Amino acid sequence: MSGHLVKTAFREVTDFDPEDIFECGQCFRWRRQSDGSYSGIVEGSFANVSYAPYENKYNIGDVKIWGNLFASDAAKRERYWRNYLDLDRNYTQIKRILTTEDAVMRRAVRASSGIRILNQNKWETLISFIISQNNNIPRIRGCIEILCREHGHSIGLLKGEPLYSFPSVDRLSVLRPGDLDVCRLGYRARFVSETAKRVALDGGETLCDAEKTPTAELGAYLLSLPGVGPKVANCVMLFSMKKSEVFPIDIWMRRVMAGVYGMSERNLSGMQDYAERNFGEYGGIAQQYLFNYVRKLKRDNPAAYERLGLDATSEKDDEAERMI
Questions:
Q1: What DSSP assignment string belongs to 23-84?
Q2: For residue 51, what are the β-bridge partners?
Q3: How many CB atoms neighbour CB 148 within 10 A?
Q4: Which residue in 2, 162, 191, 297 has its CB near the most CB atoms, within 10 A?
Q5: In degrees, to the nearest 5, what angle opens at C-alpha 314 toward C-alphas 308 and 319?
Q6: Apex CA 143: angle with CA 138 and CA 149, to 5°?
Q7: What are the angstrom distances between the C-alpha of 239 and each of 86, 150, 162, 245?
Q8: Strand partners for 158
Q9: Pairing of the two strands 60-67 and 6-14
């Protein structure tokens, strides 16, 4: 591994669970370790995140990050991780707002109380969610790792395994779809290649300024990019651009909304209206609670999951599927 690892620590952090955060479908380059921590590649650097809850205290503990990002600048490093892990947002208050009059959301929050929305690299998130279309999470991860191996930069070794950065806009913008065949992207290769060329036209400036751009305007820009539909655009805005009001809907969220709220699975506009009216500025956070709740239900209580009838439909989403 290039560069020495340094520690960044945050004390008395509430509403934080690495499994909830890194396994809820918002990121693809973090891996669980044998000690329960998670290791990943962030901004071309290795990092390991762990959480140590306090004994005899509920929902509070210390977050520790070992990594080599901004290793020589402690203040910059702390600011970066505080933003990346969304530590300045009061999730206790958000959960209180979402659950006050919603019994379904109360169950969802109890099941995934440690979710925080990551503020990830915008370019990486855009390409990752283009790759996610009609794909399952293990395969998405595999495709992204091959893409990084073939077109990123080597950043060292971890336990004998090579690590790679995510390829830059400039690198992907000069590739043809056929150059990505080894990454097993299928039809998505054309979208990745063409979107890279479009983003490169302004040097990524529109992406960099995303947080200052109104949500509707930003959404329109993302939808103009090859391979980006409503669900992908909303995921990119939620997971990298601090647009927490957006409510991504794919086939699984259709089924969740139908199963737990009794809505018609075909009524996408009704689902969006429901999210706007009931979840408001926290629509995306509510979506993550619901998605992770059903994911855990399928894993931990198959009988209860089956009673929801979420697998009974044969409908196909016309955009990205995110597998549980």
A1: SSSS-SSEEE-TTS-EEEEETTEEEEEEEEEPTT-SSEEEEEEEE-TTTT-HHHHHHHHHHH
A2: 63
A3: 23
A4: 297
A5: 100
A6: 125
A7: 11, 25, 27, 11
A8: 161
A9: antiparallel
The token pair at 227 is 């391979």
Tell the residue number behind the tokens 């009673």, with chain if given: 307
In the chain, the amino acid numbered 213 is T
Q: In the numeric block, which tokens belong to residue 302?
A: 């198959």
Distance of CA 316 to the CA centre of its chain: 22
**Burial class for 159, CB neighbours closer than 10 Å (0-12, 13-18, 19+):** exposed
Task: Retrieve residue 154's tokens.
Answer: 């080597």
| Contact call for residues 37 and 84 (beta carbons, < 8 A) | no
Q: Tell me: the pLDDT tens digits for 192-240? A: 999 999 999 999 999 999 999 999 999 999 999 999 999 999 999 999 9
Read off the pLDDT of residues 218-227 as tens digits, 9 standing for 90 and up.
999 999 999 9
pLDDT exceeds 90 at position 43: yes
Residues 6+ apart with CB under 8 A from 254: 265, 266, 268, 271, 315, 317
The amino acid at 145: E
End-to-end CA distance of the chain: 33
Query: Which segments of the chain are extended strands (E)?
Result: 6-14, 30-32, 38-42, 45-53, 60-67, 154-158, 161-164
By C-alpha distance, which of 188, 198, 53, 57 is closest to 133?
188
